[in-house]
Amino acid sequence: MKKLIFLLAILCLGCNRILAQDVSFRASSEKTVVVGQQFRLNYTVSTSGQEKPKNLQVGDIKNFDVLYEPVVFQEGTSAEFINGKLTSSSTVVYVCVVMAKSEGTFTIPPATVVIGNSTYKSNELSIRVLPADQAATASQNNNASQAEQQRAGNTSASNKDAFVVMNVSRNSVYENEGFLVTFKLYSLVDITNIENVKFPEFEEFYSQEIELNQNPHMDLEPYNGRNYRTAIIKQTVLYPQRSGKITIGSGKFDVVARVRSQQRVRSFFEDFLDTYSYVKMALTSAPVTIDVKPLPAGKPASFSGAVGEYTMNPSISSKNVKTNDAVTLKLNISGSGNLKLIKNPEIVFPNDFEVYDPTVDVKTKVTQSGVSGTKSIEYNAIPRYAGDFTIPKVEFSYFDLKSGTYKTLSTEEYQLHVEQGEVGSGNAAPIINATNKENIRFLGQDIRYIKTDNYHFRKGSFLFGTFNYYLFYIIPALLFIVLFIIYRKQAAENANIALVRTKKANKVASKRLKTVAKYLNENKKEAFYDETLKAVWGYLSDKLNIPVSALTKDNVEANLTQYGVDESLINDFRNILDTAEFARFAPSQGSGAMDELYHSTVKAIDKMESTIKK
Fold it and tell me: What domain range includes position 434?
């Protein structure tokens, strides 16, 4: 009977293992939306079993109107061999369309789904809802006049469409107190590129820059009644080095914005489609003045400028040593503040000790809340005589920002007992037990004696006066003259900026076409056509020496005709631009059309290079 029960248990465990499956149920959506804006709630169910999910319930979603109940948006299966076994998995994506009713930050509760006989829950979502754009009505009233300007070719962007703001976390700080400076871009238009960036010099500040993502994410943020897309360009923690009023200067940024325009209708389809122009804008951030307060009076003698919040952990290698043995006293100062500016605390070793420069190791982490980390200091000394010695306590003082007072940390007073080491050990030298191996020193070997051995001199022929001797002077002189002529010619060509730009047009276009080929292979249609337009417009701008913002299809045609370019090649460029602009609004375009457009672009640029040679 016991054996039968044991076998049944084994069978049940085996069945459970067969039926077991890995399930992932994840919810996702936009983190920031606007009142009245429709957006999607995505629910992704991934399972390794055969059972399909069913009966998805999103629960009671407050403060949002459910416009469309969850439906299956995408469904797929995949199979792969892992360790010789075939493993299959399936993924189902549900989409629910909702609309925010009021502003605030709201939580969408977890959804539930049934798979087999089990019910699974997703993660909850936190969504920030911004108020509706207050300037939308005024903007709509100006649409008619703006449209007339666009038809006339006056396409531009104002300083209300894009600007950079320098925000500081605090305008009033103490000397050596850190604060955060953030440069944030606000935009109502598409920013395609940021160039010629010039940040302030941060004079009279010690700066620690925060590493940011190379491709910043654009978030929605209200500003003066309008909802802008924002991105952080730079974040730096600054420590003022003196008291008084200190002004952080302006930053300058050149951006390229893609704005909607209306050009002359060329086809039936373009009558219904908007075209875009690339406009270069010069943005400037306003200066900010910081009020730096001096530190209060009553500074301790051991205070050396540390401001923040710190702890100190001391340690000593040994309290019982022998003569010529190294003693290492280590201080670990940890906390948040101006760690890299802290001076090393002074340690008074006995006069009979040979003292060496301390070894310092600073490890810090820079975040939006400031700089934190640890500064490790190793003091090395060697006793030369036996006896009992005292190392006085070491003090470290800092200004505590929370309490607004000075605080002092101290070590204990170390009592050292030094015994006489071995005498007559020859040339053996003590080694300092330092962390940095470059600081290891061997004592007693610093004298190098003059060798008195017998030397034999050998007489031989000399190079002076021979033909080879003169060649050593003639050949370098000739090479210098040739290189000088080449350098002067190259410098004259580089002085002609237009010529340099024209010469590099093909090289710049080739780099952009590599990106186009990458999007083609990844089948990213929108990015492919957008990058193709940038490559062609940029190439024509460099080749014809015309700013991108001033390029139109008409003046490109006129300039190419002046250079004697064939009408067929001009039509090729026109067709490439028309196709790329139209394809952004035609999602049905297939990979074959993309491949044909890519090869047509490469062929047209190659043909242009052989036609216009400079």
Answer: 303-439
